[in-house]
Each structure stands twice: as structure tokens, then as C-alpha cells.
Protein 1
Amino acid sequence: MKTCYIVAAAIALSLAAPAGARIKLVALPDRGPTTIRLDNPHATLIEEERVLTLQKGVNQVDFSWNGVFLDEDSIRLAVLSPTGKVTLLNVSYPPGEQALVWELAAEDACEVTTRISYLLLGVDRLVTYTAAADKPETRVNLKSHIVLRNFSGEDFERAQVVMDGGVTVAESTAHEETKQLLFFNIPNVPVRKVWTFDAAILPWDPEQLNTNVGIPVRYEIENAEKAGLGRNVLWSGKVRVFQDDGRGGTILLGEDRVDLIPVGEKMKLYIGDSRDIVVTQRKMREQSFNHRRNNAGRVVLYDMDEVISVKMENFKDSPAVLTLIQHIPGQWEMKECNLPYRREEAGRIEFDVELPARGMRELTMHYQRRNVR
């Protein structure tokens, strides 16, 4: 360690030491194998091995961290070998110091291998992704890097850096250093290009507006084994999306930020708005019935009969998949619908509509809302 050190001393049982005295030797045990664990996005765990030379009897081991930012409540000492011959008696924190003192009882003079672990502050990581799509936009090369930033006040030489999924690389990191580590690079990951119309966000009749209305377009990548992924969650991070331009180069489609993607869920990458698909939605019927009145004769509860019509036009020379999102508040019952849908939430349903090239499809949705106040 640069500023964190360990010293050990034996307390001869036959000698009387002053109360509260700390006996130190000028011996600094070298740091052994060290692990920096980055598999938790909220905390960085350091595990380091130290070989301590102990005398028979009770030994004091001082652990100091001057100038190093760590969580003192997280410091732990474990005896790896020899087991059964060394006992940790207690730990104390000298007042006014960035240090603690362990007392170890040894049956005989020996060298003992210990593991010291603690949460190191000032070390964090960022996750970045690059998705490069082929020309047909059916496959992407998905690459991820972990950006390791060290502002802890400590240097580490040739430590084992553990990332998500147990991926381990040997790296050194110095105080105030930022490093980029390759996490994974997976070619030919299946991708699905999806246009999304959300009736709660986009205008229903774009012809009535004085501006062009774009439909948001996203790439969907499933975090699953069949896609070459699915071994662990994908942490939140920034994603840059590119596409093969057909001439040996790439073009930047966009930049997005994704939240944590559990195994089995989809990474949805926004790449822009498209005007090649036009959605026109109208409410064809909105009629109340089954009125219920209070004692004064005023209507206080009723049902609604509603019909929605949606026309979806594809002006592209290739087929497209449109995700159509509809919202029906309150308690409702679908009476008739000409396209299959899935119920994502109580008041939200989604349609996956395959639109033919230069083609059109229509949705008619008849439902009744119950007990409207």
C-alpha cells in the first residue's frame, strides 16, 4: 500500500506494558495477492493477502489508512493459514487516528497468512456499450467496456479485477488514474428493429399538425443465451449505436442510456424518429350507459362504451414491426378486437403489428369502461 500499512508486535506476557501502550515493529509486510471486486455497482470491495510474522503469545497488528478513503466499519481480518493456531481476540480504534489495532493470540511463533478486506471509497466504475449493426439491421456486434476510476488515494499493482459474471482481468491502477477495461465483445447478436407508437404520447391525427410527426425507432436486443448473452445482468450505462454504411465504414445512428437489463429482458436502444410509418388514430364512439343516480337524481356512476380505430401505414420498401401501445384507464372489458394484444399492466395493452412493405393495416378496438365516476 502507498499510505496504508500494517505492523505487528508481540506482547511478552511476563512484561508489564503501560495501559493503552501500542508496541510497533519497523517491519512492513508486503501485500500479497489482491482482488478488486467491481461486480457490485454501488461499492468496491478490496481483498488483499498479507503474511504476518507473529511471536508466541498475544500480538498487536496495527492497520492504518492515512490518506486513503475507505469505510472503516467494513474492515475485516480473516486468518487463512495455519488455522486453529491463531485466534483473533479483539479489535480497537485508537482515538484521533485513521487506524485500528487487532490483537492476535498465537500458540507458537509462526508466519500466518491473512486476508484483509474493506470497502474502498473513491473507486468506481462506469459501463459503456457499443452496438454496431449490419446493413440489413438484423445483427449487431455488441461490445462493452468498464471504465475504472481510482481516486481513493491508493495504488494497486497487478491486482485481479473481478467484473460481472466472474470475469477477471489482471490490471494495475494508480491513484487519480482512469482505465478502460474490455468486459465482453460478442459478434452477431440478433437484433430487432421496432417502431413504437404510444397513444398517450404521440398525436392521434398527424395530418392536423403543421409539423412532421416521427415514430420513435428502437433496436431490441434480448439478454438471453440464444443471443450470445444471458450469463449475467447488463448494468446500466451509455450505448452508442452504429450501422454498416455498405461501403466499408459505419454511420452513427444515435446514443442512448439503458437501465439495468436482467437476464431474459430486452435492451431497447433508441436510434431516432422515423417518418416512414404514419399512425392515425380516432375515437369512433364514446357513449355512456348504465347510469346510476344518487337520491337527488344526479348521475354519480356510469359505464362507457368506446370504439378506437387505428390506421397504420408503412411507406418503406421493406416490412416493419410496429409496437402499438394503448391505455384504458380504470376497470374495463374488451368486447371486440381484430388484432391480438398482450396486457402489460392493468390499464396498458400492447400490439405487435407486422406491416408489409408499402402496406397498411387497421385496428378496431371496442371496449367498455366500468364504474366511471
Protein 2
Amino acid sequence: MQKKALLRKKLQKQKIDGILITDIVNVKYLTGFTGSSGYAIITKKDAVFVTDFRYQEQAKHEVKGFRIRIERGDRAKEIKDLTDEYEIRRIGFEDHHLTFGFYNKLLKKKIKLRPLNNTLESMRIIKSPVEIDFIKKAVKRAETAFRKLHPFIRAGSTERKLALKLEELLKEEGCKTLPFGVIVASGSLSALPHASPTSRVIKEGDLIVFDWGGEYGGYYSDMSRTVAMKGRNTVKQRTIYSIVSDAQKKAINSVRSNIKATVIDAAARNYIEQNDYGEKFGHGTGHGVGLAVHEKPYISWRSKDIIKENMVFTIEPGIYLPGFGGVRIEDMVVVTKTGAEVLTSLPKKFKVI
């Protein structure tokens, strides 16, 4: 109810009669619907959720506070019928979710449209106590799975085998879906921030970056750990790891409500630059996590986001050396009245296996 009330206030400011929500993540946020097809229309007084026949019974169980309709034919025509029925003279739409083709179909139905930017995302960015609790449980599932993976991390295994095993363990912990494909990157491939697992055999002296997440109630977690296999280059690996670890601590300690996200990014980035590895850290320091694994706020040098209490995001600096390997340490935090509460609890001490 509160979400609809907040959205209606936004409608008044925009001077429109309703809003069409088509992004399935935003639909879920508003309605609780977990299927893959549906949209919602919110007006000043009414709220309707529309899906197809496949989800008729599911919608009855999941969607509360909305009139439920089952679409029978052309979606653009049905939206036109709804705008007529609810006397919507001008309807807002999510400008970064509606395709150009479907936009044109709506125009041909004589529907007056107004683009809206980040209307739902600006609501989702602040997490409720229930959402934070779900994220914490998603973190716990992910951490439990990783602890169970430890006996399988050994020379002679492959990246793909470890990734598949971790996915299996995550599902055993109750994760219905995974936020993204598990990343296991070893040796020189660990210098690729978003490497896909390969058939490469884990060798002595390798750095191994693990990046994975869990799920609970549709909400996600995201974390990374880097370990080393006993062997060559341990001194250099430990040095790089220490720099990344200290950079992350500085970023976490910088978190405050009402600061720019760029301040947090700079805390990590400046420290890495001071240690002569600035060019080896090319991605943002973090990103929001919730119903999507990448959402606002974005913690980078380009971000325009302002940090507020109850935002949840990652802090994940890294150093990536082509031909040698990479280190990334990623934790999740929730912004509190006094700083940041770290939600992840896996040890971060440099570990040699």
C-alpha cells in the first residue's frame, strides 16, 4: 500500500493520470508477482495487474491490492482499453524499459504517452526492513555454500567443475534462482574481472577469484573472495591482496548517509593509485543489490547517486595484472545512521591453500 501511495505522489508531480509499469522487476516490486510476463497500471485511484493465462492462478496467490486481469489478445489494444476504462488522458511509461517498437504501437492506438526516468528505481534504492532481512538471508545462503565448497578447491580441479559445484551448493541451500552465473577465474584468467569459468585446470601458485551470490525471497546477494594455491609468486600475491584489502577497508569506513557515491569510490581508488596500481583498477567500486543484482546506487567515479540510510550495495575494489592474475574482495553493506553495517562475514585474511 505504501509503495502505491508513494507512486501516486509522483504521478501528481508529473501531472499525469497513470503510469504503465512494464519492467518485470519493477512489476514484482509493486505487486509481488514472481512470473515472467505481466504489467501493471497505477492511476490516482485504481491499480490493475495484467498477465496471461499461464499465470492466472499464480497471480491470485501472489498479487494483492490490484485488480487482476488476464490478457486475451493484442497487448497494445488492451492497454488502450484500460486507459479508456480508467479515463487516463496521459500515461507515463518507463523510458528505459519500453521498446521503440512497442512505443510506436501504443502511439498508433492514440495513447498519449509521457516518458518517466527512474521512477520505480528511485523507490527501490531505499530498502525496507523486510527487504534488508531477505538480503541478509541471501547472504547467509551464499556464504554457507562457499564454506561447503572449500574441500573441493584444490590443484587438479577445473574452473568449470568448481563453478558447477558452487551452483549446486547454492541451490541446496534453497536458492531458487542465481543472480548471475558463478565466476571462477584462476591463474592469468583471474585478471579478467568478469571471466567465465573455463576447463582450465587449477595449478599450484594460482590466484583464484570466486564471484557468486545467493537468493532469498527474490532478493539477491553478491560477494567475491580471492584465494591462492600454494606455490610460486606468493609474496607478490600477498602484496597485491593487502593493497586491495586496505582499499576496501577505507571505502567501507568512508560510508555515511548524505555523501556522494563518488566519495566511497575515491576512498578505494585513491589508495590503489597511491600504491601505483591505479591503472589496474578500471571498474566501479560497487553497485546496489536487491531484486536485481545490479541496481542503484552505483559506486563509481561517474555516479550521481547520493548515499542514504538503508541503501544496500557492494564494495569491491580489485587489482588486475594481465599475464599474472587478479585480486578482488567484495562485501555487501547496508547504510546505517552512523556508517555501514557489513552484511558479509566470510574471512578476508589472505588464504593460501
Protein 3
Amino acid sequence: MKAVLLGTGTSVGVPVIGCNCAVCRSTDPHNKRRRASLYLQAAGLHIVVDTPPDFREQALQFRIPRVDAVLFTHSHADHIFGFDDIRRFNTMQDAIIPAYADSETTADLRRIFNYIKLEKTPGVYRPRIDFREVSGTFNIGGLIIDPFRVKHDHKPTMGFRFESDGRTLAYIPDCLEMPDEVVDRLKGVDVMILDALRHTPHKTHLTVENSVKLLQRIAAKKSFITHMCHDLDHEATRKTLPDGINVSYDGLTMEW
């Protein structure tokens, strides 16, 4: 497996428009955070989880060569509004690309991007997407994907556990509460990436402290917090975390 975190920021990104706080003015590149997205290579496949508004820039900066499938955690703007840029991969690959999501997210994607079709339209440059609703474990080639629900806002959002050739990764960018059964399903994964917005409580996201508690229960070989706002300076936050848990950053690449 090879995973690249394309973005590790919250919905407004970091720096925040019009903000002059120390993190937004920081020269540390680790404090520049685009909206959250993951790029995973496994079982000969190239998978993107969420297409935020920054997706085009992320694909250019991190030189994404192809996309075999897109997975969506939920339909909030910061996770879907770069979806149109998938059309470039349709063109390069001359292929329809499947998009996997639960029924609610699929319905939102079809409504918002109502011009998306399967077939080519002569003279028109649009994404060609095969929407596939998921409710349980599924495979894309040799990659096993286990979706699960966690509490985010008024309705659940999705997280994913990936497995290929005995290697595992789990990714949950938006989370307020995680059921015990989900914790049990994730225990001992190789890499765990989990929401941690800030230190002070929030109505829809984990705090750093609560995220750390969950990560310690999951006990992955490597754990990272993501979806961070400008309250968190990279280096200062890193120094507060226990062994085995670290702060992610845009472009963080792991291969195992």
C-alpha cells in the first residue's frame, strides 16, 4: 500500500481567508492545509477518497497519474466540490470511473452534479461516472473495503477500512463519536487516520484529546490526526501527542 494525504485541513482550509493568527501567517509548510482527501494505491489500483474544492491543485501538486475509483465519506461541500475535475481522468484513461458512496450521498451527488452521465456526449466535456451505492463490505479488484458509519452532524458519515495483501489502513476525516463496534473493527490496523479538529469542543468534530483516546483504543501501528483547523500549529501539536500518534500534513506519504 501507498497512501498520500492530499489535504489535511477543515472545511475552510488553512490559512483561513482574512485571518491573521499565528498559524495562518506561519511559514511552516506543514501549516498549509487544503481540504481533506486521501489518495491510496493498493492491489494495482489508484483510489481517491473525497474530491474537495482543492482537488485539481492536489492532483497537480502530488502528480496523481490516474484514478480507478472515487469513494465519498459524505456530501458536505468540502468533500465533494472538486468532483467535476474527475473528467480529466476519464479523458486520460478513456474510461468510465466508478464512484462509491452510501445512498444518501449518492442522491446528493446525482442532484448537485446532475449533468454527469455514463456515456460520452460529443463536443461536451463532462465526467463519466458509474454511481455505485454501498452498504456493506465490497471489493474493487483485490482491494477489500469495509465501510462503516460514525456520528458527524445530524446524520452519520462514512469511514473506510482498506485491506490488500494483509496490509490495512483506515480513514475517518469527519467524526464526532465512534461506536464501540467500529472501534473493535479497526483495532490493530497498520495505519489509522482520524479527525481531530481542535482542542476546544465542537458540535460535529472530535477534539484532539478525544481523538487521541480513540486512537489509543484502536492501537494502530501508526496513527495520525487530520481535518485540523487553524487552532492547531503543526509542531506545537506534535509535541503534545503521545508516542505512536502524529500530526498529518498535506503530502504526507506512507508506503508499506
Protein 4
Amino acid sequence: MAHIVAEPCFNCKYTDCVVVCPVECFYEGEAMLFINPDECIDCEACVPECPVEAIFHEDNLPENWKEYVQLNKDMAPIYPVITEKKEPLAGK
């Protein structure tokens, strides 16, 4: 099991979480971040760093966001890894 970035990150992209990740498993999409579940070690360091509470352990993901499990798995491999904090998207 892994941690998942869910809907609250969409059009937000705070990157506080990426700087605490010891295995660099965050990937930057155009409108949100993704976690590669094959790289996540479930350390939970990222969870308290997310100001919009968008990161969940897969077992605790709200039912209405279950599709984000597959979305993270599919999208992480096609985007570049992100390890440094950046400004969030405009308006956030």
C-alpha cells in the first residue's frame, strides 16, 4: 500500500510535501502532484506537511476519491520527479 495524492491538490499544488520525502516519490503534473506507489515507503512524512490535506494512505482514502489510486499510479511515471518546494498555483 502507498500514500495517494487526492482531489484537494487539484489546481493547488502546494509542494511542502516533496521536500520531506526521503525517497523522492512525488511527480509534478500540470494541475497537481502525484505519488508513485511503487516508490512510496509509507513513512507518512508528507501527510502533515500538506496544507490542504490532500495526501491519504490508500486504506484511508475517502470513497469518493478512490479513482485517485489508479490516477497516481498511471500519472506519476509520465511526469518529472519534484524534490524542491515551488510556489503553488495562482490563487491558492
